[in-house]
């Protein structure tokens, strides 16, 4: 068993009943939680200890914004503008995607 697999198992055990992360994560599935654990472990050199508070924070955020994941409900905050034409007279569009620049609370 690799260090990463062992770390994933340790983190996933924290989701068991009576453990600190039980019930967190909104509608996230086991495979989504497992994938998040794996990403956190890779980021933290397979060290479980710094992953736990980050995992808890990510799961709390996900539960708070569960509609984004379960219902795919969000407000599009961007627009396209025709700003001219290229040499073949095709329209050239300017794309503004505020969602990528603003915090979630400002584009709802």
Task: Please give a structural write-up.
- Helix 1 crosses helix 2 and helix 2 packs across helix 3 (48-64).
- The chain has a two-stranded antiparallel ribbon with strand order 1-2.
- The protein is built from four helices and two strands, in the order H-H-H-H-E-E.
- Helix content is 44%, strand content 14%.
- It is α+β, with helices and mostly antiparallel strands and 108 residues long.
List the main descriptive attributes of the protein structure presented here:
108 residues, two-stranded antiparallel ribbon, elongated, alpha+beta
Estimated share of beta-strand residues: 5-15%
Helix segment tally: 4
- The end-to-end span amounts to 44 Å
The percent range for helix content is 40-55%
- Over all CA atoms, what is the radius of gyration? 20 Å
Shape: elongated
- Which stretches are low in confidence, meaning pLDDT under 50 for 5 or more residues running? none
**Structural class designation:** alpha+beta
Mean pLDDT: 82
Order of helices and strands: HHHHEE
What profile does the largest beta sheet have? 2 strands, antiparallel
**How many β strands by DSSP?**
2
Biggest sheet, strands in spatial order?
Answer: 1-2
């Amino acid at each position: 068993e690799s260090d990463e697999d062992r770390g994933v198992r340790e983190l996933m055990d924290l989701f068991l009943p009576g453990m600190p992360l039980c019930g967190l994560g909104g509608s996230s599935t086991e495979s989504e939680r497992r994938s998040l654990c794996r990403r956190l472990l890779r980021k933290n050199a397979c060290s479980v200890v710094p992953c736990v508070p980050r995992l808890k924070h990510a799961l709390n955020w996900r539960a708070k914004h569960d509609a984004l994941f379960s219902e795919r409900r969000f407000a599009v905050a961007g627009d396209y503008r025709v700003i001219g034409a290229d040499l073949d007279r095709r329209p050239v569009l300017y794309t503004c995607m505020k969602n990528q620049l603003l915090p979630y609370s400002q584009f709802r």
